Amino acid sequence: MELDSLDRDLLNIIQSDFPVTKEPYKHLADSLGTTEEDILARLERMTENHTIRRLGGIFDSRKLGYTGTLCAMKVPAERIGQVADVVNAYPGVTHNYIRNHEYNMWFTLLVPEKKDIEKVLAEIRIRTGLHQLISLPAVKLFKIKVNFDLTEG
Amino acid sequence: MITGLEKDIVRILQEGLPLVSRPFLAMAERLGITEDTLIDAIRDMQSRGLIRRFGAAVKHQALGYTANAMVVWKVEGEDAIRAGEIFSAFAEVSHCYLRENSGGWQHSLFTMVHGKTGEECHQIARTMSKASGLTEYLVLFSTEELKKNSMKYFTEE
Q1: A122 and A72 belong to one structural domain
Q2: For residue B116, is it within any domain?
Q3: What is the extent of the structural domain holding A19?
Q4: B91 chain-A contacts, CB cut-off 8 A
Q5: Secondary structure (DSSP) of chain A
Q6: N or C: which end of chain A has fewer CB within 10 A?
Q7: Does B127 share its domain with B69?
Q8: Residue A62 included in any domain
Q9: Which positions in chain A touch B128 (Cβ < 8 Å)?
Q10: Do B76 and B110 contact (CB within 8 A), yes or no?
Q11: Nearest-CA distance from B129 to chain A in Å?
Q12: Is the pLDDT of residue A117 over 60?
């Protein structure tokens, strides 16, 4: 994927300082010395090629009242696809990765009510017959940085 | 607390901001409110922290950060707090959480480390180890992505 320097400057700004104003794209165009049409065309291109995953609000799940946790599960290699189908069917499972450890399946779970965490995990144990599933809720948050500086790249 | 209007705003914002000249006007019309009301409400949700960040979520693999590792550290008590603060100062660390130990899991300090290559992630972990004095850690790479979605809030009401 090719990004020119204006694409990079644009991504840098809109990752953290997207203007919440009536004409945000015009505002971005003015600060970057280009036209609104150019900004919109660049954003369309970068959305289509998935450089931009989403443009909108990134929410604090806790402040919206949700409870989250990170779960780890020991899954036999030959059952990964089938177990992933069970786990991924829950809308609150947003990320699921296989990692190089005996606890090989790692997924995040977000639910509207705290009590739902144990309920979902109990269901997963029953549906998969696998019991080595642990929940590791965060007790302290030191850093969440979701924007990357592109000016050096 | 979150109001009914704010839940509506969350639902519509998670669909993505339209690429039109006045995106907030387009959204406000769908919600049956004015553009000014919507903009004021979004700014209020930002100031209260309900919206942690407004803008683009960028795929970091697309930007050359092709490797990432979950590096987990065996540490307890005050040492965990001290190490968490040290690790947070690393630009290559995007996330740093202390998690509850359960089911025998003992590596309770979690860091997400980003680099250009797997070896670079190992190198960053070694630097973090020296900086913190923590020597018991695991570098866990993802070998397969089974799901990666943005959360859809308030969809069941």
Answers
A1: yes
A2: yes
A3: 5-48
A4: 149
A5: ----HHHHHHHHHHHH----SSSHHHHHHHHHTS-HHHHHHHHHHHHHTTSEEEEEEEE-TTTTT-EEEEEEE---GGGHHHHHHHHHTSTTEEEEEEESSSS-EEEEEEESSTHHHHHHHHHHHHHH----EEE--EEEEEEE------S--
A6: C
A7: yes
A8: no
A9: none
A10: no
A11: 17
A12: yes
Of B24, B59, B93, which has the smallest distance from its Cβ to A143's Cβ? Answer: B93
Spatial CB neighbours of B29, under 8 Å, sequence gap ≥ 6: none
Confidence of residue B63 (pLDDT cuts 50, 70, 90): low
Q: How many domains does chain B have?
A: 2
As for the ipTM of the complex, it is 0.87
Query: Do B12 and B66 sit in the same domain of this protein?
Result: no
B40/B67 same-domain check: no
Nearest CA in chain A to B24: A22
In a domain, A72, yes or no: yes
Q: What is the pLDDT of residue A153?
A: 34
Do residue A72 and residue A114 come from a single domain? yes
Q: What pLDDT is stored for residue B156 in this prediction?
A: 66
For the domain that residue A10 is a member of, what is the CATH number? 1.10.10
Kindly provide the residue ranges of all beta strands, DSSP E only, lying in B14-108, ordered along the sequence. Answer: 51-58, 67-73, 93-99
Split at pLDDT 50, 70, 90, the class of A152 is very low
